[in-house]
Amino acid sequence: MKIINETDRNSYKNVWTLSELTADSIHPVSYELLGAAKKLALQRGCEVWTAVLGNVGEERIKTLFSYGADKIILINDKRLSSFNDELECNLLERLIKKYRPETVLFAAMTRGRALAPRLASKLYSGLTADCTGLSIDPENGDLLQTRPAFGGNIMATIRSSDHRPQMATVRPRVMPVPESDPGRSGEIIREYITSDDALRIKEIIRSIQTDGSSLNLNDARIIVAGGRAMKGPEGFAMLEELASRIGGAVGASRAAVDNGWISYPHQIGQTGTTVQTDIYIACGISGQIQHLIGMQSCKTIIAIDKDDTTPMMKLADIAVKGDVFEIIPALIKEFDKRRN
Ligand SMILES: Cc1cc2nc3c(=O)[nH]c(=O)nc-3n(C[C@H](O)[C@H](O)[C@H](O)COP(=O)(O)OP(=O)(O)OC[C@H]3O[C@@H](n4cnc5c(N)ncnc54)[C@H](O)[C@@H]3O)c2cc1C
User: Which residues sit with their C-beta closer than 6 Å to ligand 1?
Assistant: First the structure.
């Protein structure tokens, strides 16, 4: 919403986060967001509020107080059991207009990435995606939103002085989880879905779990990732074989995902997941900057490629020049031999 004058600006108050739930708990990113929000709120002398939209009881969400929330806005409704961007966007738009938060933070995960841009456009607020740093300009209270720009070559700090609320998405595992204070409590504000919120253009008929449901790239210590060189799903089945022998998960470049050889939850990079594993084995991935952004902090990078001049081969701690269809079966054979 466009700021008209100083009175208008001062009518926006508090830092909000949107909490993320898992099937039976709170997603840790919710605590990371609260930690970041608390630091901003201390500088602004205001409160931290978090919105929880789901089919969820009050007991389950009380830990949000221990991690820094002063107030929780809860909408507990069966219609929020599975993610519906349209409905959640309508709800948040109404709540933001009603309570006028100065800043709203989302996790840069599926839900936040779907909701934040829609909301930003509805509220004319602007949005900085994938922030890695947040602070306050003490002069005027503007949120300074820092994120990599130009393919990660520079860090840009963005502000939206003329609009409120200020909105940003934050990558998981970038902000530290604050220390929990189990004695802390706060107020739960109950809100409800109105008939206007529930007006829908589309209806979810059924949800299908992809193979990504069992995938947790974030917790993996080893990732075996494949690129365009894998040529098809059979190539990825081979990577799965290797990964299963070394306790790893399978990742992919966008080229492989776009070709439909493996599903999107496996994608690593700027528009996929960011990983920080002990070992990252890149198989036939050239290492364009959009891929490197998602894995360059891995501890040991091993690259296999026919071409030893690619950015990935240059970045790798161990660069193996050769054909993936010869090297990977040989590795699988060797692991089997050693196990027997
Ligand atoms: C806005 C934007 C966002 C993007 N986001 C992402 C992202 O999140 N993640 C991502 O990965 N990409 C992303 N991309 C795409 C990115 O720019 C590259 O196009 C993509 O990463 C290339 O994938 P690749 O390395 O698998 O393919 P290629 O660049 O084609 O590389 C294939 C490699 O395989 C090697 N090779 C071929 N055959 C063999 C063989 N038999 N044995 C061994 N080596 C072989 C080749 O020498 C080559 O190095 C994005 C692009 C844009 C514009």
Answer: 227-229, 253-256, 267-272, 284-286, 288, 290-291, 294, 304-307, 310, 323-325
CA angle 19, 49, 116 (to 5 degrees): 50
Q: 211-339 in CATH: which number?
A: 3.40.50.1220
CATH architecture under which domain 6-190 falls: 3-Layer(aba) Sandwich (3.40)
Cα 225 to ligand 1 centre (Å): 11
Residue-range domain boundaries for the chain? 6-190, 211-339
- Compute the distance from residue 246 Cα to the ligand 1 centre, in Å: 24
Same fold across 6-190 and 211-339: yes
Q: Is pTM beyond 0.90 here?
A: no
What confidence tens digit (pLDDT) does each residue in 90-124 have?
999 999 999 999 999 999 988 999 999 999 999 99
Helix or strand (DSSP H, E) at 88: helix 85-99
pLDDT tens-digit map of 67-95: 999 999 999 999 998 888 999 999 999 99
Determine the number of helices (DSSP H) and then strands (DSSP E) in the chain: 11, 15
* Atom in ligand 1 nearest the alpha carbon of residue 252: 11
334 Cα–ligand 1 center, Å: 28
